[in-house]
Amino acid sequence: MGLFTAAGTLALKNGLSPFAQSAFADSSIPTGLPRSPLFGVQPFTQPMPRFDVLPRNPNPFAFLTPAPTKEANTTQQLLNPALEGVTPGDTGPIEGRPPGPIWAHQKFDTMPPQIAVEVSTEGAKVNAVYNPQVASSLNSGIDPTQPFRPRFHPSLPDQGPSALWTFNGTLPPKLLVGRYGEGILLRHHNNLPFDVRQNGGFGRHTLSTHEHNGHHGAENDGFTGAYFFPGQFYDYHYPIVLAGLNSINTGATDHRAGSPNGSAGISNVPGDWHETMSTHWFHDHMFSFTSQNVYKGDAGMFNLYSALDRANEGINDGVNLRLPSGTAKDFGNLDYDVNLMLADKAWDANGQLAFDIFDTEEGFVADVMTVNLVYRPFFEVERRKYRFRILNGAVSRFFKISLSDGSPMIQIANDGNLLPSPVVITQTDQMGIAERYDVVIDFSRYSIGQTVSMVNLLAHENGTMPATSLSLSSALKGSSSDPCVGKFLEFRVVRDPAQPDVSQVPAVMIPNPDLSAIPVARTRTFVFGDSADQTTNDPVTSFRGPWGIGAGGGDKLNADFGRISAAPKAGTREIWNLVNDGGGWDHPVHIHFEEGQILKRNGSASGVPAWEKGRKDVYRLHPDGSVTLTMQFRDFGGMFMEHCHNTVHEDNAMLLRWEIDDNGAPFVQPLPTPIPTPQGVTFEAPTQILRGAF
Amino acid sequence: MARRALVIPVVLAFLVGIAGSLGWLSTARAPDDRDGRLQSDATATASISSQPREPARSQPPPPEPPRPGSRDSRVRGAQPSLEIAISGTVDGVSESVHLSGFAHVKSTLVTDPHRGHPPAALLAVDLLDVSGVGLSTGARYVSSGDDNLIRQLAPSDQIDITFPFFPKEPGGVSLARSAVVSFDLSFDVGTGQVTGGTASLTTPDVPR
Fold first, then answer.
1. Which residue of A has its CA nearest to B114?
2. pLDDT tens sequence across A546-558
3. Which of A166, A428, A461, A649 has the CB geometry, 3.0–4.6 Å to A297, for a possible disulfide?
4. Do B41 and A603 touch (CB under 8 A)?
5. What's the whole-model pTM score?
6. Which of residues 100-159 of B touch A (CB under 8 A)?
7. To 5 degrees, how large is the angle CA B102–CA B108–CA B111?
8. 3-state SS assignment for residue A612
9. Are B77 and B57 in contact (CB under 8 A)?
10. For residue A56, with 0-12 CB atoms within 10 Å meaning exposed, 13-18 middle and 19 or more buried, which class applies?
11. Torsion of CA A39, A200, A368, A213, to 10 degrees
């Protein structure tokens, strides 16, 4: 088999690269590709860039042109004939959101957006407006006024516009910041090439952006079949609300359910404060192309601030948890609150990003470790506590992270949700794709001039699941055949903090919502495995692949976003059993929309580790393992997804659609399926409704 | 990571008995009853230690027959928990701490013959029963150690796990330190079960 490189050339795979390094000559990593040439670059010779904070603009209705609308803006524009299915003279809507009331922004009238953020996905280019929102001294000396080039290291080649597709076309990756009660209108422009073939060998030019794991209406969820084309935009409305806002604390009287008010106070918001979320990310969710597009760079992170977790460690109001962050701003201090996006990458002989599109089964594992999309960097720290929001942004790789001296870290959050209580760890659990672990590291234990590194302890031999957990000493010896094992981020302790560290890690953070009084309306079981069947053949919504999900006791089925596999009633709570029916793979399963609580692992409540006892949105299914969870379906309606977040598995075709469609008008039962075209989105009846879905 | 081997021989509490009969327990679930599978898996987790963590079942149900079209790729056996005694002293600048207790080790066999991947063992190691006493202050210490590992299956394996411990007092987590426990484990490569083991403690070279 071969591979496509970002240069669009076909190369034979495995072992033919003149740049292959002997140390890993017998390695199967990267899967399906020759080893990535490093051009003599050594690790830990470049600073790690902090995320690039997206500009926030007040009053979206004045800032954005055209102004955002509740229903999709169907103003016509002349289409580029390079788009597939377009003939000269064709017109189509300027917004790719499906039209009509079902896909209108929910709560748009009662909770209109207050902040506009405008982004575009486009090919790589130089960043002349990098804004890390921290001083250069807190960004390892990086001067943000200097052009930031699209490359993984200063001594590696620039990525070309067909190799790397990112938000705004630039590096570092983007950080969206928001606070509860202050809705954001994210206008996402698709500025990718009109010609679908201009992709450097991999990646699809249609997009659908998932805010993972936003509690929003389905029209803003990045549904896999609600994609939009080059030349269009899509308005995503993130009202940033606490789950339960229609039924709990509706009068907004509980100050724990609150948001920073800009002057060290709290603006109360409705909803359940136990549902407060903190660390999200956003990424492409294009049907059958998520792995390629996310790998190509279409991913960012999203910090949500609240009265409990406002990222100001100095405000002592009895609500603020005062986690490591800073004090200069009322909320959202990033000084000591650091986003880390981990991802393995591979590139071709020209240094251009490469991907094995021919592996439709096991998963893609690359050979170069990146943090914030640069190769094995260093990061300068002060002698104090830091919070790290760690995202596994890989395609198929799991990570297990330790410090190089084995010293403790404190895990405070899992999947963006602060835990009920912090957990002291010396290494993380196996961190599945899309999982987020927030940890606090106290560098005051070190002396100025010392270094300590983050180390990956988990080796892959293929993309199905991790192959071996290494001890710290083994990982540091460099004896693994997996080049991504070992140190990947070096902390350099450079000074004492100018201000005292007043941050805390409270013994109690956010207890779980009490669901004991909420009856269980339904129990469903979903079986994840291979050898799946396809029962439909819609040319747009249906896909065939080795993977599938069985629902309601039926056979495992390939993905079809026109098929309804489950339809919980609005306002209810259900128990979902996720079952892995095979021993050769590990599936990190993501359920969109609302956070769940794991009740049991492998049928045992005692099998749930401490770091999984909070709320979650990704549930790792160990080989032949099971997870029993409970979640609610409330506040919004529409169609959502459940899928494996090993995105190669997801794309081939371990994904299903579920929906909440009895939430009152305009939702009908069942919901029609959107069929996007450049000329506009049409609708068709569901291709299949599984027995027992409703 | 340089670290100084300290001590501690260990003991081991275990095993046998029903081990051989448990080889197919994880597949020992009622055919055509996936909802029931969870319960089956739970009750299948038997203990061969002196302190069972899960209720044992007396007779495993027969293995599930292969499903047409399904690949022979599965985990065999939600395995019993092996208890291994841990005892030793971990040095530190603040004070040395004597730690003792038990590690609970559970192994599950993973096979994937369809893809030719070698068999592996999923290990769940629970150190929550490990506690300690400060040799200078007499302060109580507790540990916080769960770990999940995957290892290529072999008759014997050495596994080092770093785990934290900290004073059992308010704010104690901020004073957390770490220790390394080294296990020498033996496996039944046919069933994937861990059949025996010893453990020793060492002090990692952690800056203070």
1. A584
2. 999 999 999 999 9
3. A166
4. yes
5. 0.90
6. 108-112, 114-115, 117, 120, 122-124, 144-152, 159
7. 155
8. helix
9. no
10. middle
11. 150
